[in-house]
Every structure is written in structure tokens, then in C-alpha cells.
Here is the input.
Amino acid sequence: MRLPEAPLRTTKYGLAPDGDGWFVLDARESRWRDDGPQLGFYADFEGKRRFPQIGVSLYVLYPGQPMSMYHRERHQEAFLVLQGECLLIVEGQERALRTWDFFHCPGGTAHTIVGAGEGPSVVFACGARGGARGYFYPADAVAGAHGAAADRDTDSPAEAYARFPASTRCRFREEWFDRDDA
Here is the structure.
């Protein structure tokens, strides 16, 4: 049986898959989300339905912008810095990341990544899906010093992100990527 190609739907903010099947989508043409001045931007490449087995996102973080609140969850994740510099906060420790650094995050590991350096960083993120996510947001002092921790321990994403505005859709911006091959 051959799997069909999913058509790409043109939206106000870029292309999105419209149905099941395989597809190829240039990240510059995908729909993006603007998480506000404190949390950066990302493309998740999904249409109306989420991918059932893995979550895949491409984040653009300016210096000081965390990609998420410091948290742990049941499922494993992986992160690859494609451009720029970041600060990994993992299990209460800081670790510098730069282009081509890879971070494997087993389920249950408290973590977040914060943009660092002089300009935007680009981070590829991938995580397993299925069943209850089991998020927990510890009020960690190290992450809190970077504006990336909940005010108190909570298992509620709504509470952990309460101080941030809701994300909005946006288009790709050329200044996000160094494009020597463009």
C-alpha cells in the first residue's frame, strides 16, 4: 500500500498540511507561532491535527528568551542547536550550548533552553507523544534567574505560563536565520 501525499493548505500565516500522509515543507513557508517577547517563536509543522507519535518544532530564541518554562514530563525529548548559542538549564544546572550541540532529555528530566549570545538561536526539538504528558513545573532558582521557572511548584501548564500572553500565529522572518546557502 502506498501512502498518499498530504496536500498543503495556504493560510494567512503560511502553509500547513491538510490531512494525513507524508509531506515536504520548507520551514520558511510553514506557519509559525509568536509566543511573545519573553518566549520566542516556533514552527510545529502540524495542521489541524497533531502528529500522533512525535512532536517536532523549530524554535527561534533571542538572547534571554526561554523556549519553555522549566519542567519535566514523562516522555523523552531531544534538542539540536542549529544556529547560535543557548543556555541549557537541566536538573538545576546551567550548561552552555552552541551550534551543533545535541541534548538528549530522558523522561523525568527537569529542563529548559534559553537563547544566549549576540543574536537569534535556532533549536530543533523533538519529543515522544502518547498518553498523559505528566508535566511538572518546579520553582527552580537557577531557571527563575532567567525568567524560566514557575513562581511555585505546579503541575498546571496554565498556572506555569499565566504571566505570559497567549501565542499568536505569525509568518517566518528572514532575520531569524543565517542563510549562506540562500
